[in-house]
Design brief:
mainly alpha; 3-stranded antiparallel beta sheet; 4 helices; Znf_RING/FYVE/PHD; ubiquitin-protein transferase activity
Length: 104
Amino acid sequence: ESARLEDERRVAEEPGSSSSAAAAPATREEEPPDDFICPITTEVMIDPVMAADGHAYERTAIERWLATKSTSPMTGEALEHTFLSPSHMVRRQIREWQQAHPGG
């Protein structure tokens, strides 16, 4: 235990390591949660909808997908239906996260 702590102290004292170590967590904290990212666009969703596969997608992206396919973008399996339901809870969580992390 004390050897591990000594190693951590030594690394922290190395030139440049403390500033880069301090910057890395801040960057990660500003990353949106994975559930807020559309798996098709890889961007934060604005109008999230739930598909039959149980995954949330950006409405326009999944509508374009379903215009030519009847499979899940996530699993590749056939979807039982192509009805898309608004995901109000995910939308609210995204908005709350965006307000708490301006520019994030």
